[in-house]
Amino acid sequence: MNLFTVLILSIFSLTTFVYSAECSTYHIVKSGDSLWRIAKKYKISLRELYKLNPYLRKKKFLKPGQKICISKLKKKKNKVQRKFIVYKVKKGDSLIKIAKKFGVKVSDIKKLNRLKGSRIYVGQTLKILIVSKEERRIVKSDLKKSERKSFITYRVKRGDTLIKIARRFKVSLKDLKKINNLKSNKLYVGQKLKIPIRAGRIYKSERRKPVRRYISGKRVVLERVRKKVYLRYKVRRGDTLIKIARKFRTSVREIKRVNRLRNNRIYAGQILRIPVYKYVFIERVAKVPRISLRILPVEGKIVKSKRGILIYTDCGTPIRAVDNGIVIYNGDDLNAFGNMVIIKHAKYISVYAYNAKNVVRLGQKVNRGQIIGYVGISPNEGRCALHFELRDINGNLLNPINYLSVRK
Fold it and tell me: Could you state, in order of their start, the residue ranges of all structural domains in the chain?
Protein backbone atom coordinates (compact mmCIF):
# COMPACT_ATOMS: atom_id res chain seq x y z
CA MET A 1 0.00 0.00 0.00
CA ASN A 2 1.60 3.26 -1.12
CA LEU A 3 1.55 6.59 0.76
CA PHE A 4 -1.18 8.12 -1.48
CA THR A 5 -3.66 5.29 -0.73
CA VAL A 6 -3.00 5.57 3.02
CA LEU A 7 -3.67 9.30 2.87
CA ILE A 8 -6.95 8.86 0.97
CA LEU A 9 -8.21 6.20 3.42
CA SER A 10 -7.31 8.31 6.45
CA ILE A 11 -9.23 11.32 5.05
CA PHE A 12 -12.24 9.10 4.27
CA SER A 13 -12.26 7.59 7.76
CA LEU A 14 -11.97 11.05 9.33
CA THR A 15 -14.93 12.40 7.34
CA THR A 16 -17.07 9.35 8.15
CA PHE A 17 -16.23 9.78 11.86
CA VAL A 18 -17.29 13.44 11.80
CA TYR A 19 -20.41 12.58 9.79
CA SER A 20 -21.36 9.75 12.19
CA ALA A 21 -20.95 12.10 15.16
CA GLU A 22 -23.65 14.36 13.66
CA CYS A 23 -26.16 11.55 13.02
CA SER A 24 -28.50 10.45 15.83
CA THR A 25 -30.70 7.77 14.15
CA TYR A 26 -29.59 5.02 11.75
CA HIS A 27 -31.38 2.42 9.64
CA ILE A 28 -29.64 -0.93 8.99
CA VAL A 29 -30.36 -2.03 5.41
CA LYS A 30 -32.02 -5.43 5.03
CA SER A 31 -32.47 -7.54 1.91
CA GLY A 32 -35.31 -6.16 -0.24
CA ASP A 33 -34.99 -2.58 1.16
CA SER A 34 -35.10 0.44 -1.14
CA LEU A 35 -34.64 4.15 -0.51
CA TRP A 36 -38.33 4.77 -1.24
CA ARG A 37 -39.43 2.16 1.38
CA ILE A 38 -37.01 3.58 3.99
CA ALA A 39 -38.23 7.15 3.36
CA LYS A 40 -41.86 6.02 3.69
CA LYS A 41 -41.14 4.08 6.91
CA TYR A 42 -39.56 7.09 8.66
CA LYS A 43 -41.95 9.61 7.07
CA ILE A 44 -39.28 11.70 5.36
CA SER A 45 -38.77 12.66 1.71
CA LEU A 46 -36.14 11.16 -0.64
CA ARG A 47 -34.66 14.65 -0.92
CA GLU A 48 -34.01 14.76 2.85
CA LEU A 49 -32.61 11.22 2.75
CA TYR A 50 -30.10 12.19 0.03
CA LYS A 51 -29.21 15.33 1.98
CA LEU A 52 -28.41 13.25 5.08
CA ASN A 53 -26.55 10.59 3.01
CA PRO A 54 -24.88 12.39 0.06
CA TYR A 55 -22.84 9.30 -0.93
CA LEU A 56 -26.06 7.42 -1.87
CA ARG A 57 -26.48 9.47 -5.07
CA LYS A 58 -23.55 7.66 -6.69
CA LYS A 59 -24.72 4.16 -5.68
CA LYS A 60 -27.35 2.30 -7.62
CA PHE A 61 -27.97 -0.53 -5.12
CA LEU A 62 -28.10 -0.85 -1.31
CA LYS A 63 -26.10 -3.55 0.49
CA PRO A 64 -27.56 -5.50 3.46
CA GLY A 65 -25.97 -4.35 6.72
CA GLN A 66 -25.29 -0.85 5.34
CA LYS A 67 -25.99 2.09 7.72
CA ILE A 68 -28.21 4.93 6.49
CA CYS A 69 -28.63 8.15 8.50
CA ILE A 70 -32.26 9.10 9.22
CA SER A 71 -31.91 12.22 11.44
CA LYS A 72 -29.16 14.48 12.77
CA LEU A 73 -28.43 15.60 16.31
CA LYS A 74 -30.11 18.87 17.23
CA LYS A 75 -27.68 21.38 18.63
CA LYS A 76 -28.84 22.98 21.85
CA LYS A 77 -28.91 26.73 21.74
CA ASN A 78 -27.22 28.36 24.70
CA LYS A 79 -29.61 30.71 26.45
CA VAL A 80 -28.18 34.20 26.86
CA GLN A 81 -28.57 35.36 30.44
CA ARG A 82 -29.62 38.99 30.37
CA LYS A 83 -28.49 41.41 33.07
CA PHE A 84 -30.92 43.41 35.21
CA ILE A 85 -30.89 46.12 37.85
CA VAL A 86 -32.88 46.35 41.09
CA TYR A 87 -35.23 49.34 41.32
CA LYS A 88 -36.98 50.53 44.49
CA VAL A 89 -40.54 51.80 43.93
CA LYS A 90 -41.04 55.47 44.89
CA LYS A 91 -44.13 57.53 45.68
CA GLY A 92 -46.21 58.17 42.54
CA ASP A 93 -44.64 55.30 40.59
CA SER A 94 -46.65 52.92 38.41
CA LEU A 95 -45.60 50.04 36.16
CA ILE A 96 -46.20 52.16 33.04
CA LYS A 97 -44.04 55.03 34.38
CA ILE A 98 -41.22 52.63 35.34
CA ALA A 99 -41.43 50.91 31.93
CA LYS A 100 -41.16 54.29 30.15
CA LYS A 101 -38.24 55.33 32.37
CA PHE A 102 -36.12 52.26 31.58
CA GLY A 103 -37.42 51.64 28.03
CA VAL A 104 -38.82 48.17 28.72
CA LYS A 105 -42.23 46.54 28.34
CA VAL A 106 -44.69 46.32 31.26
CA SER A 107 -45.17 42.62 30.45
CA ASP A 108 -41.38 42.05 30.84
CA ILE A 109 -41.38 43.68 34.30
CA LYS A 110 -44.39 41.59 35.38
CA LYS A 111 -42.85 38.37 34.02
CA LEU A 112 -39.41 38.97 35.60
CA ASN A 113 -40.94 39.85 39.00
CA ARG A 114 -43.79 37.27 38.79
CA LEU A 115 -46.48 39.95 39.22
CA LYS A 116 -50.08 38.83 38.58
CA GLY A 117 -51.59 42.32 38.55
CA SER A 118 -50.41 45.91 38.00
CA ARG A 119 -50.43 46.94 41.66
CA ILE A 120 -47.14 47.98 43.28
CA TYR A 121 -46.34 49.68 46.59
CA VAL A 122 -43.79 52.20 47.85
CA GLY A 123 -40.52 50.50 48.91
CA GLN A 124 -41.12 47.42 46.75
CA THR A 125 -38.01 46.20 44.86
CA LEU A 126 -38.37 45.29 41.18
CA LYS A 127 -35.94 43.65 38.76
CA ILE A 128 -35.58 45.71 35.55
CA LEU A 129 -33.88 44.34 32.43
CA ILE A 130 -30.96 46.34 31.01
CA VAL A 131 -31.75 46.90 27.32
CA SER A 132 -29.82 48.42 24.43
CA LYS A 133 -30.57 51.83 22.90
CA GLU A 134 -32.20 50.19 19.86
CA GLU A 135 -34.51 48.03 22.03
CA ARG A 136 -35.38 51.07 24.14
CA ARG A 137 -36.33 53.05 21.01
CA ILE A 138 -38.60 50.23 19.75
CA VAL A 139 -40.34 49.86 23.14
CA LYS A 140 -40.94 53.62 23.36
CA SER A 141 -42.58 53.66 19.92
CA ASP A 142 -44.76 50.68 20.93
CA LEU A 143 -45.79 52.48 24.13
CA LYS A 144 -46.77 55.56 22.12
CA LYS A 145 -48.88 53.41 19.79
CA SER A 146 -50.59 51.70 22.76
CA GLU A 147 -51.31 55.12 24.27
CA ARG A 148 -52.91 56.25 21.04
CA LYS A 149 -55.19 53.20 21.03
CA SER A 150 -56.31 51.71 24.32
CA PHE A 151 -59.41 49.84 25.47
CA ILE A 152 -62.36 50.37 27.77
CA THR A 153 -64.62 47.63 29.13
CA TYR A 154 -68.32 47.83 28.23
CA ARG A 155 -71.04 45.67 29.85
CA VAL A 156 -73.81 44.64 27.45
CA LYS A 157 -77.29 45.91 28.43
CA ARG A 158 -80.77 44.75 27.44
CA GLY A 159 -81.54 45.77 23.85
CA ASP A 160 -77.87 46.11 22.82
CA THR A 161 -76.60 44.66 19.56
CA LEU A 162 -73.08 44.60 18.09
CA ILE A 163 -74.14 47.09 15.39
CA LYS A 164 -75.56 49.53 17.98
CA ILE A 165 -72.42 49.31 20.15
CA ALA A 166 -70.14 49.75 17.11
CA ARG A 167 -72.07 52.84 15.99
CA ARG A 168 -72.15 54.30 19.48
CA PHE A 169 -68.36 54.04 19.98
CA LYS A 170 -67.51 54.72 16.29
CA VAL A 171 -65.66 51.45 15.67
CA SER A 172 -66.13 48.95 12.86
CA LEU A 173 -68.11 45.77 13.45
CA LYS A 174 -65.18 43.72 12.09
CA ASP A 175 -62.71 45.24 14.61
CA LEU A 176 -65.16 44.77 17.48
CA LYS A 177 -65.56 41.05 16.69
CA LYS A 178 -61.83 40.54 16.14
CA ILE A 179 -60.81 42.19 19.46
CA ASN A 180 -63.36 40.18 21.45
CA ASN A 181 -62.84 36.89 19.51
CA LEU A 182 -66.53 36.75 18.51
CA LYS A 183 -67.53 34.30 15.76
CA SER A 184 -71.15 35.50 15.52
CA ASN A 185 -73.18 38.65 16.33
CA LYS A 186 -74.92 37.06 19.33
CA LEU A 187 -74.60 38.86 22.70
CA TYR A 188 -76.03 38.30 26.18
CA VAL A 189 -76.91 40.75 28.94
CA GLY A 190 -73.98 41.33 31.30
CA GLN A 191 -71.34 40.24 28.75
CA LYS A 192 -68.10 42.28 28.89
CA LEU A 193 -66.72 43.69 25.64
CA LYS A 194 -63.40 45.43 24.93
CA ILE A 195 -63.97 48.72 23.08
CA PRO A 196 -60.95 50.32 21.36
CA ILE A 197 -60.63 54.05 22.05
CA ARG A 198 -58.18 56.62 20.72
CA ALA A 199 -56.55 59.37 22.75
CA GLY A 200 -58.46 62.65 22.60
CA ARG A 201 -61.72 61.11 21.30
CA ILE A 202 -64.85 62.08 23.23
CA TYR A 203 -67.88 59.87 22.64
CA LYS A 204 -71.47 61.06 22.55
CA SER A 205 -72.14 59.17 25.78
CA GLU A 206 -69.41 61.24 27.50
CA ARG A 207 -70.66 64.56 26.07
CA ARG A 208 -74.19 63.87 27.29
CA LYS A 209 -73.20 63.71 30.95
CA PRO A 210 -75.13 66.29 33.05
CA VAL A 211 -73.24 69.58 33.37
CA ARG A 212 -73.37 71.27 36.77
CA ARG A 213 -73.39 75.00 37.30
CA TYR A 214 -74.48 77.45 40.03
CA ILE A 215 -77.01 80.30 39.69
CA SER A 216 -77.73 82.64 42.63
CA GLY A 217 -76.48 80.11 45.17
CA LYS A 218 -78.57 77.23 43.75
CA ARG A 219 -77.05 74.41 41.82
CA VAL A 220 -78.60 73.87 38.39
CA VAL A 221 -78.09 70.68 36.42
CA LEU A 222 -78.89 69.77 32.83
CA GLU A 223 -81.11 66.68 32.84
CA ARG A 224 -81.27 64.41 29.79
CA VAL A 225 -84.92 63.90 28.79
CA ARG A 226 -86.51 61.87 25.96
CA LYS A 227 -88.75 64.16 23.89
CA LYS A 228 -90.86 63.72 20.76
CA VAL A 229 -89.84 65.92 17.79
CA TYR A 230 -91.04 66.11 14.17
CA LEU A 231 -88.82 65.82 11.08
CA ARG A 232 -89.70 66.91 7.54
CA TYR A 233 -89.16 64.10 5.04
CA LYS A 234 -89.48 64.31 1.25
CA VAL A 235 -90.85 61.09 -0.23
CA ARG A 236 -88.59 59.47 -2.82
CA ARG A 237 -89.36 57.10 -5.67
CA GLY A 238 -89.87 53.57 -4.31
CA ASP A 239 -90.74 54.71 -0.78
CA THR A 240 -93.65 53.19 1.13
CA LEU A 241 -95.05 54.04 4.56
CA ILE A 242 -93.66 50.75 5.94
CA LYS A 243 -90.13 51.55 4.66
CA ILE A 244 -90.25 55.09 6.07
CA ALA A 245 -91.57 53.85 9.44
CA ARG A 246 -88.75 51.29 9.68
CA LYS A 247 -86.16 53.88 8.67
CA PHE A 248 -87.14 56.30 11.46
CA ARG A 249 -88.12 53.58 13.96
CA THR A 250 -91.74 54.65 14.29
CA SER A 251 -95.09 53.13 13.26
CA VAL A 252 -97.19 53.51 10.10
CA ARG A 253 -100.19 54.35 12.27
CA GLU A 254 -98.31 57.27 13.90
CA ILE A 255 -97.17 58.69 10.51
CA LYS A 256 -100.74 58.49 9.14
CA ARG A 257 -102.18 60.16 12.26
CA VAL A 258 -99.67 63.06 12.20
CA ASN A 259 -100.10 63.66 8.44
CA ARG A 260 -103.90 62.94 8.44
CA LEU A 261 -103.59 60.22 5.78
CA ARG A 262 -106.71 58.10 5.12
CA ASN A 263 -104.81 55.32 3.31
CA ASN A 264 -101.25 54.09 2.67
CA ARG A 265 -100.86 55.87 -0.69
CA ILE A 266 -97.99 58.37 -0.97
CA TYR A 267 -96.24 59.95 -4.00
CA ALA A 268 -92.69 61.05 -4.85
CA GLY A 269 -92.00 64.64 -3.73
CA GLN A 270 -94.67 64.57 -0.99
CA ILE A 271 -93.58 66.20 2.32
CA LEU A 272 -94.33 64.16 5.43
CA ARG A 273 -93.93 65.00 9.10
CA ILE A 274 -92.16 62.09 10.85
CA PRO A 275 -92.49 61.78 14.66
CA VAL A 276 -89.22 60.65 16.24
CA TYR A 277 -87.86 60.61 19.79
CA LYS A 278 -84.68 62.52 20.64
CA TYR A 279 -82.78 63.17 23.84
CA VAL A 280 -82.65 66.83 24.87
CA PHE A 281 -81.35 68.63 27.98
CA ILE A 282 -83.53 70.66 30.31
CA GLU A 283 -82.35 72.79 33.21
CA ARG A 284 -83.55 72.00 36.72
CA VAL A 285 -82.51 72.93 40.24
CA ALA A 286 -80.71 70.00 41.86
CA LYS A 287 -82.27 68.75 45.06
CA VAL A 288 -79.54 68.32 47.65
CA PRO A 289 -80.53 65.55 50.09
CA ARG A 290 -80.15 66.00 53.84
CA ILE A 291 -77.36 63.68 54.94
CA SER A 292 -76.13 63.09 58.48
CA LEU A 293 -72.85 61.16 58.50
CA ARG A 294 -72.76 59.79 62.03
CA ILE A 295 -69.76 57.62 61.15
CA LEU A 296 -67.04 57.54 58.49
CA PRO A 297 -66.23 54.32 56.60
CA VAL A 298 -62.76 54.31 58.24
CA GLU A 299 -60.78 56.61 60.51
CA GLY A 300 -57.67 58.30 59.11
CA LYS A 301 -56.24 61.33 57.33
CA ILE A 302 -58.84 62.93 54.99
CA VAL A 303 -57.75 64.55 51.70
CA LYS A 304 -60.14 66.11 49.15
CA SER A 305 -59.96 64.61 45.65
CA LYS A 306 -61.70 65.42 42.34
CA ARG A 307 -64.55 62.96 42.78
CA GLY A 308 -64.78 62.64 46.57
CA ILE A 309 -62.32 62.19 49.43
CA LEU A 310 -59.35 59.92 50.13
CA ILE A 311 -58.99 58.53 53.64
CA TYR A 312 -55.41 57.35 54.32
CA THR A 313 -55.19 54.53 56.86
CA ASP A 314 -53.61 51.08 57.32
CA CYS A 315 -54.15 48.35 54.73
CA GLY A 316 -56.64 45.70 55.85
CA THR A 317 -58.66 48.14 58.02
CA PRO A 318 -62.37 47.15 57.98
CA ILE A 319 -64.60 49.44 55.85
CA ARG A 320 -68.03 50.12 57.39
CA ALA A 321 -71.24 51.27 55.69
CA VAL A 322 -72.13 54.88 56.64
CA ASP A 323 -75.89 54.17 56.66
CA ASN A 324 -78.55 51.50 56.12
CA GLY A 325 -79.03 50.55 52.47
CA ILE A 326 -78.83 47.98 49.66
CA VAL A 327 -75.69 47.00 47.70
CA ILE A 328 -76.31 47.98 44.05
CA TYR A 329 -72.78 47.30 42.79
CA ASN A 330 -69.99 44.93 43.88
CA GLY A 331 -67.04 44.21 41.59
CA ASP A 332 -63.89 45.41 39.84
CA ASP A 333 -65.06 46.28 36.30
CA LEU A 334 -63.52 49.77 36.52
CA ASN A 335 -59.75 49.15 36.62
CA ALA A 336 -58.99 52.66 37.90
CA PHE A 337 -60.96 52.02 41.13
CA GLY A 338 -60.20 48.32 41.71
CA ASN A 339 -62.64 46.51 44.00
CA MET A 340 -65.60 48.81 44.59
CA VAL A 341 -68.89 48.73 46.54
CA ILE A 342 -71.82 51.09 45.86
CA ILE A 343 -74.68 51.28 48.38
CA LYS A 344 -78.05 52.93 47.74
CA HIS A 345 -79.53 54.61 50.81
CA ALA A 346 -82.93 56.27 51.27
CA LYS A 347 -81.93 59.69 49.85
CA TYR A 348 -78.40 59.27 48.50
CA ILE A 349 -75.71 56.83 47.27
CA SER A 350 -72.31 56.07 48.84
CA VAL A 351 -69.26 54.71 46.97
CA TYR A 352 -66.27 52.81 48.49
CA ALA A 353 -63.28 52.10 46.19
CA TYR A 354 -59.63 50.80 46.21
CA ASN A 355 -60.74 47.90 48.41
CA ALA A 356 -58.40 44.97 48.98
CA LYS A 357 -61.46 42.70 49.41
CA ASN A 358 -65.26 43.03 49.35
CA VAL A 359 -67.33 40.95 51.81
CA VAL A 360 -70.84 41.79 50.57
CA ARG A 361 -72.85 40.57 47.59
CA LEU A 362 -75.06 42.32 45.05
CA GLY A 363 -78.57 43.03 46.39
CA GLN A 364 -77.58 42.46 50.04
CA LYS A 365 -79.12 44.70 52.73
CA VAL A 366 -76.54 46.32 55.01
CA ASN A 367 -76.84 48.26 58.26
CA ARG A 368 -74.96 51.31 59.49
CA GLY A 369 -71.53 50.23 60.77
CA GLN A 370 -71.60 46.82 59.06
CA ILE A 371 -68.26 45.69 57.54
CA ILE A 372 -68.48 45.69 53.73
CA GLY A 373 -64.77 45.26 52.83
CA TYR A 374 -61.16 45.97 53.74
CA VAL A 375 -58.86 48.87 52.82
CA GLY A 376 -56.50 48.29 49.87
CA ILE A 377 -53.84 50.29 47.98
CA SER A 378 -54.48 53.39 45.86
CA PRO A 379 -53.07 52.44 42.42
CA ASN A 380 -52.00 56.02 41.61
CA GLU A 381 -49.95 56.55 44.79
CA GLY A 382 -49.15 53.07 46.05
CA ARG A 383 -50.42 54.00 49.54
CA CYS A 384 -53.10 52.38 51.68
CA ALA A 385 -56.26 54.47 51.22
CA LEU A 386 -60.04 54.36 50.76
CA HIS A 387 -61.75 56.38 48.02
CA PHE A 388 -65.14 57.57 49.36
CA GLU A 389 -67.88 59.36 47.41
CA LEU A 390 -71.41 60.61 48.03
CA ARG A 391 -73.96 61.12 45.25
CA ASP A 392 -77.62 62.08 45.06
CA ILE A 393 -80.22 59.67 43.62
CA ASN A 394 -79.65 61.11 40.10
CA GLY A 395 -75.90 60.39 40.31
CA ASN A 396 -74.70 63.99 40.86
CA LEU A 397 -71.54 64.30 42.99
CA LEU A 398 -71.81 65.64 46.55
CA ASN A 399 -68.88 66.86 48.62
CA PRO A 400 -68.57 64.47 51.63
CA ILE A 401 -66.58 67.09 53.57
CA ASN A 402 -69.73 69.24 53.78
CA TYR A 403 -71.41 66.53 55.86
CA LEU A 404 -68.54 65.59 58.19
CA SER A 405 -69.36 68.29 60.76
CA VAL A 406 -72.76 66.67 61.36
CA ARG A 407 -71.16 63.54 62.88
CA LYS A 408 -72.05 62.71 66.50
Answer: 3-72, 150-205, 212-285, 301-406
